Amino acid sequence: MTDPAPERGPPEGSRLLADASPTVVDVRPKPAVREPGLDSASRTGSTRGSGSTSVVTARETLYVQEIAQTRAFVRVTMVLAALVAVAITFLGGDPFAKRLLYFSLCAVIVACGWLAWDLREDERYNLRKVLLVGAVCIAAAFAAIHYFGFYSPAVVIIPFGLCFFSSGGDTRGTLAVWLGCALLELFLGVLTIAKLMPDRGIVQGSAVSPVDGLAMLILIEAIFLATYAIMRASRAATLRAIELHDHAIVQIAQREALLKEARADLAQALKASGIGRFTDRELGGFRLGNVIGRGAMGEVYEAVQIHNGRPAAVKVLLDHVLAQPEQVQRFFREAKLAASLVVANVVTILAVADIDAALPWIAMERLHGQDLADWLREHRRMSVSRLSSLLRQLGVGLDAARGAGIVHRDLKPRNIFHAREGDRDVWKILDFGVSKLVTDDATLTRDKIIGTPTYMAPEQIEGGKITHRTDMFAVGVIAYRALTGRPAFSGDSEGQILYRVVHAMPPRPSSVVSCPVEIDAVLAVALAKNPEDRFDRAAELADALDAAAKGRLDPAIAARAERVLARHPWEE
């Protein structure tokens, strides 16, 4: 889910707040979704934001493949063991070796049957169980070698098993399987060649000289090693190919998203300007001109305050919204909250319609400039010094909101406006339409969370307590986007984005752009999942960025970053 198309001003770039269109996400209880193919020790989280969408990485994709391969392997092995058990009934050979092989084959059938039954559900997959069955299969394979002969075709059963086990995801487990096979083969081979163990096989090696036997043993060990190495290399190549494919898909998706956003911006700009329903009408002491913004909830008109000629902008609700009492309440809520914040870095409310007015409207100061989203699209990145200035100005507005007990809840580049006021450039916070009073537990969206997924804080998504540090998380995400030129959290779906916000970190900033490594620590704190680990004020974040850029980061912040990253490391 992407940000709503912004409402834009006429071609010269003037714009002001039109209507709030935040994401509304249903947070009523849903079944937890777990990582496919991972046991409890390997999962990074079981709750996936909303719905049943899960984030599947390249490694998780291979885990799913590993489960399917395991099911196929145990079925084939059961059939093969049964066929060998039937076949040796008609063969001669050493009675002890035959009985040992019979016992081993029965154990293989029982073990594989148990694992096949246990793997009816992906969630039951467990590497320890697979390795246990693997040990039984290896023992049976060497029992077959003992029965058929050290120099018989039975030896090829070992590479068959190694092909399966060596393609697994656990490096230590696959290494243990290969070493077990190699050492056991070496041990039995040396004993057989040195005549220290009787050769009970159907295929006798009595005519093979010790030198030839040793040469064949070395060749067999080389085949084991080659099988293991090839399968590990194959897994690594597959993993790399999937990662490259996923990266390409994400890049394409991001380009398509930017293109769609640009098209939407263009379409909005083309349809925004012009004559509207209320053009040339007087409304609450304001004379309305042309439409300068149009969105899902309302229209924004350029206007003039009649008694003093002051330029203004008036937002009027659309007809279909008037039939939705909840939206009308939110409209007046925005007006009430924004009007209470009389500070230079929050858009000024000039007047508001009476609550029982037939046509709700809000008159605001007229802003000229561009929002942060457009600024970043034009410039891509922001310097540390410029970002620090932006953060300090945002901090003024957020501190005023905090003093009034208000949490914005939908801070994002579209809601931060770079206004030109004479010779001054001022950053202003827009849209308090989804704000929340800290002392008020009630909201206008029961059982739902509202905001924009990319900029939501983890506690918003999980239905936790909303505080001023919820806004500070959004400020951190904005800082990451401004410094690196890329979004901190992205995905092909709303579920992916929400999951990554709660459970993952973006790539390390210094791996994306050239910047001091101290910047990594500052942004780690700004993006901390736990609200108590974050900065308390935007000015603190600005001070930390300035210090980090000069290599003078406070050791306390560096230590806090280490604790944060220990729980949620940067994405590799």
Write up this protein.
The structure is a single chain. This protein has a domain at 58-208. The chain has helices at 58-87, 95-118, 127-148, 157-165, 171-193, 210-272, 319-322, 325-339, 372-379, 384-403, 458-461, 468-484, 494-503, 509-512, 517-526, 538-549, 555-567; strands spanning 23-26, 282-283, 286-294, 298-305, 311-317, 349-352, 361-365, 369-371, 406-407, 416-421, 424-429, 436-437, 448-451. With 572 residues, it is α+β, with helices and mostly antiparallel strands. It is elongated and about 115 Å long. The strands form four sheets. The protein has a six-stranded antiparallel sheet with strand order 2-3-4-5-7-6. Strands 8-10-11 form a three-stranded antiparallel sheet. The chain has a two-stranded antiparallel sheet with strand order 1-13. Helix 2 packs antiparallel against helix 3. The protein starts with 22 loop residues before the first strand and ends in a 5-residue tail after the last helix. Strand 2 and strand 3 (286-294) form a beta hairpin. 50% of the residues lie in helices and 11% in strands. The longest helix is centred in the middle third of the chain and has 63 residues, at 210-272. It has 17 helices and 13 strands.
